[in-house]
Amino acid sequence: MSTEKNTKAQIRLPLFLALGISAGIWIGATFAEPKTDRNDLKSAIYKLQEIITYINRDYVDSVDTNELVEFGIEKMLGKLDPHSSYIPAEDAALAKSQLEGEFDGIGIEFGILRDTIYVVSPLTGGPSEKIGLLPGDQIIKVDGETVAGTGVTNRDVFDLLRGPKGSEVQIGIKRKNEEDLLDFNITRDKIPQYSVNASYMIDNSTGYIKITRFAANTHEEFRSALQELKGEGMDRLILDLQGNPGGYMGAAINIADEILKDNAVIVSQEGKLKRYSQKARAVRPGSFEEGSVLVLVNEGSASASEIVAGAVQDNDRGLIVGRRSFGKGLVQMPIDLSDGAELRLTIARYFTPSGRSIQKPYGEGEEEYAMDYFNRMEHGEFFSADSIDFNDSLKYETVKGRTVYGGGGIMPDYFVPLDTSMTSSYVNRLFSSESWREFILDYVDQNKKKFEDMAFNEFYNDFEVSDKMLSKLVETGEKYEVKFNEKDFNKSKTYLKVLLKAHIARNLFDDNAFYKVINEINEIYQQALKLVDNADALAFFEE
């Protein structure tokens, strides 16, 4: 295939917009399109066949038809909406595993440090934990081939270490204080992925549950967490959906059903075809239909997160605390294609119980849509609720008559401005480099005896990040060309200490420990703690 850019540009766009359109036509044809459209379909398909035939036979250079088809499909979908997407065959299985709740592999959380794969943590109950892999182990060889120092990527790691249950992989491990590589034969197994990353009691009556995505097992995990916390005395729930990008709509509906009373509307969706139009209600006795509920959202809470938040808000079931959510109200259907690729096609819009669509506008193009976060920041929305303009034509009422607005995202009942007082560009650079990972691994390894018998409560109450530790972190950062900035460092010192303590807690204990520490500097969480005592006195809780 010719590598001349001008030649590619001349043929790619018109041809593969046509290819993309044709791909959409083939898909649409499976949905029983009206007869009046069929002649247009045949004509378009025939035109596409002509173009491909001429290019394949007569074009001056050789052409990778598959590559150009992929390009065309992506261009076509870009003309529809921001959330219809195409996932190539080589990435489809990995994408599905992120939502299906489990995958086949060796069971490690990994990182790449100094061009080497290292074990952050073996996953509980997985094959790597069972055979004795440890945090900090470096993976030097896989099946006899050296993978360290080869420019290995995250994608490479998935390809190397994931595989069918029952298959074996041999890895060579470099472990601190061991001169020779340690060889392990690992039999791959089903590895569960958890979406309820933290659940704990804040005090004697208030429970906290953090959901990071809505996957196949999320409802089951959520219900289990509810039961456990109720057994510890919970009668007030803080449900944290900050930064949750969404996932399966069914998981969101089931979780809302645990909170809402029978027959309450959860969400409705409307599509061009009748079979995509439906309304979901609470249909079974939930595990937490009584007691205060506070739902935490921010600008990163999207899709299924907004279904839950919208259902709680419109049914006057609880308080929404935080900042306006992302604004994704389009429903995608996954479609498996014949070559293993996947099409995620928007087939409906969803509406909260009051009837509002929370999909933000996307008519100005994909680039403007992608810039929405930065536009909100620039407009001042993250710092003041007054900067948000609501359209009176998109005014709706909750069950008890409170006013809510459509037009883009869920606006919280209690707005919490973004706190940037402790952050700085220096800390951002430090934590986006590999320096903090190296520091934590080295620190934990050097202090094994200190932490060996330490319970989390002792760590939480007594452990402090010292100035000496910060100095070592700064020194490690300079190894990675993160230039020290004294002004930024002094501004962010308290913030930096909490971040380090939280990540050390995760390394030593689990995600529960991480969130218990990091929530000390989460402004939305801290505001929720101030509101939870008075939640039951708010008007919309009254009968």
TrEMBL record:
InterPro entries linked: ClpP/crotonase-like_dom_sf (IPR029045), CtpA/B_N (IPR055210), PDZ (IPR001478), PDZ_6 (IPR041489), PDZ_sf (IPR036034), Peptidase_S41A (IPR004447), Tail-specific_protease (IPR005151)
Keyword annotations from UniProtKB, A to Z: Hydrolase, Protease, Serine protease
Gene3D superfamilies reported for this sequence: 2-enoyl-CoA Hydratase, Chain A, domain 1, 2.30.42.10, 3.30.750.44
All residue ranges annotated as the PDZ domain in the record: 91-162
Record GO cellular component, one term: outer membrane-bounded periplasmic space
PROSITE patterns to which the protein is assigned, alphabetical: PDZ (PS50106)
GO biological process: proteolysis; signal transduction
Leader sequence segment: none
Protein's UniProt keywords contain Secreted: no
Family that this chain belongs to: Belongs to the peptidase S41A family.
An example molecular function term from Gene Ontology annotations: serine-type peptidase activity
Pfam families: CtpB_N-like (PF22694), PDZ_6 (PF17820), Peptidase_S41 (PF03572)
Record has NAD as a keyword: no
Superkingdom of origin organism: Bacteria
Official protein name in the record: Carboxyl-terminal processing protease
Native organism: Cyclobacterium lianum
